[in-house]
C-alpha cells in the first residue's frame, strides 16, 4: 500500500515538474535587441522593485540594492531607450517619500537623461518616473491620477482601500520628427482583480480625450494582466495597439518564466511599430537587476 502511494506520488511529481519545465521553456527566449535607429523612437517599460530603507540585509534591502545597482545601470544602458517608464522605483520608508536611491543613481550615471513625472513628493508621486533622452525630447507637461474613487487626491487608497496605485504621465515633443506624444505609465494592484479592472477603466476614461484629439499616446507599464485578460482587453478596446510581447516579463527574481507577459506597451495615433517588441531576459554582470525583465519597442512617428 505504502509503496503504491510512493509510486503515485513520484509519478505526479514527475508530471508536475515536466509541465513546469515545458511552461518555462515556452515563456523563455532571448531575442536580440536591434540597434536603435535615429529615425525611430525607442519606448520601454521596466519594473525595478522597491528598496526597503529600514533593512540593511536580505531581499530588496539597502544591502541588496548595493548588489543590484551596477547591473541595473548596465541594463538601462543596454536598453538605450529614448523614453522609459519605471514602476516601483521607490525607496520605501514609512512617512518619508524624500529618498529615491534608484532614480538618483540612474540620473547620476546617465547624464544624457532627465526625469519626467516626478517632483516634490508632497505634491507629485515620484515612484513611477519617466526617464527621457533630453537632447532629443522636450518635456511639455506632466501629471498623475490615482486608482481611487478620488483619483485627483494624492496618495488616495485604491478602490478597495489597499495601498495607493496610480498612473503617472508626461507629454513630450520629439525634436527629430516634430511630433508631440504622451506616455501614460501605469502599475495596477497585483493582489486584487477588481482593483485592476476599475483601475484600467479609469485609465481608459482619462486617455479618451487625448485619443479623441488624435494625439499620439503610449500606455506602458505593469498591468499585472496577460493578453486576453479583461484588464488587458479594456485598454485594447480604447483603440490602443499593444505590441505582441511573447513570453514572460516577470521571473520571480530567479529567471523562472512560468507565465506570459504582464508588462506591456500600447500605442495610438501617429506611432507605427518598427518591429517586434523585445524582452531582455538576461543577467547583467552576473546578477538579476530586479524581478521583471524590461520590455522594449521601437516606433516610427509621423512627421509633423
Word description of this protein:
This protein is α+β, with helices and mostly antiparallel strands and 304 residues long. 26% of the residues lie in helices and 26% in strands. It has five helices and 15 strands. Strands 1, 3, 5, 6, 13, 14 and 15 form a seven-stranded mixed sheet that branches. A six-stranded mixed sheet has the order 7-8-9-10-12-11, covered by helices on one side. It has a two-stranded parallel ribbon with strand order 2-4. Helix 2 (62-79) packs across helix 3 and helix 4 packs parallel to helix 5 (230-236). It is globular, with a radius of gyration of 20 Å. The termini are far apart.
Q: Nearest-angstrom radius of gyration?
A: 20 Å
Helix and strand run: HEEHEEHEEEEEHEHEEEEE
Q: What fraction of residues sit in β-strands? A: 25-35%
Number of strands: 15
Total helices: the number is 5
**Could you report the average pLDDT, rounded to the nearest whole number?**
93
Percent in helix: 25-40%
First-last Cα distance: 77 Å
Shape: globular
Secondary structure class reads alpha+beta
- Note the main sheet: 7 strands, mixed
Spans with pLDDT under 50 lasting ≥5 residues?
A: 12-19
